[in-house]
Amino acid sequence: MNFFYIIKEGILGFKRARLAVTISVISIALSLVLVGIFAIVAQNMAGVFQKFYRQVQLEVFIDPALAISQVQKLQQKIQKHYLVDSVIFVSPEQALSEFEKDFGADLVAVLDENPLPPSIRVILKSGESRITVIQDFVGEIKTFDGVDDVVFQTEIIKLINEYSLIGIIVSISIGLTIFIIATLLIFNTIRLTIYARRTLIEIMKLVGATNFFIKGPFIMEGIFQGLFGSLIAFGLLWISNYFIKGIFATILAVPYQYYVILISIGVVLGFLGSYFSVNKYLKY
């Protein structure tokens, strides 16, 4: 029995049990859509979290008497630290403009002068949220010449650390649950497809067919079911992403690797589901 025979019989299996195969393919597609949706949502939520975290900054207030060259040297010194992603000099005028934009108050009208000092805004590298490490870094910056004070959002960083850990645990738990349910559903639907033709398997054994001769077409059929189901899931996810973009003028970040992984999962589960199911009726 050659490989082309197995492929041919696997395809013919779709015609011999159209209803059962159709139900199996639809079940695989819906299961993989659930897995894909969760993966995409988790990916984008992680992106939102990282974007929010990058807004957590250190505000280094400096002596207004420092010359421009001294400020630049101080910026370069801070930039060299391994925690730092970027540094931005904020002049008193810029600080006043940001204050008025955020709070709507005119400080100059009230105080007759701009009370805000110049500062260096330090943006930490994404993922650097260890509070003790940041506190040590802040203590180090305070020892630099020309630095008056350093302010950072301690409570926000603590909340990020706390909820990011909770989010990771919850995401992994939900993801595993969805994947296990999807796997069991796919296995059961493929098993039902093969169960509907158990009599055929028994007849083939009675006439002396080898186990490989019997298993080959069924396994290939399971692979095709997984492939077609995953391709349908791919199409549904792509169309959903397209409509989200059209309606909300935004788009979810969906790496192409997700689609490759989704199709691979469908093929692998189709193979495993058919392999174990047909083995049950061969009574190894």
Question: How is this structure best described in words?
Answer:
- The protein is an alpha+beta fold and 284 residues long.
- It has a 4-stranded antiparallel β-sheet with strand order 2-3-1-4.
- It has 2 domains: 170 residues, no CATH class; 96 residues, Alpha-Beta Plaits (2-Layer Sandwich).
- The mean pLDDT is 79.
- The chain is rod-shaped and about 100 Å long.
- Helix 2 crosses helix 9 and helix 7 packs parallel to helix 10.
- The chain is 73% helix and 9% strand.
Q: In whole angstroms, how far apart are the ends?
A: 21 Å
Main pleated sheet: 4 strands, antiparallel
What amount of the residues lies in strands?
Answer: 5-15%
Radius of gyration: 31 Å
Strand order of the largest sheet: 2-3-1-4
Instruction: Output the helix-strand order.
Output: HHEHEHHEHEHHHH
Content-based structural category = alpha+beta
Share in helix: over 70%
- Put simply, the count of helices is 10
Count of domain modules: 2
Shape: rod-shaped
Question: Averaging pLDDT over every residue, what do you get?
Answer: 79
Got a strand count?
Answer: 4
Spans where pLDDT lies below 50 across 5 or more residues: none
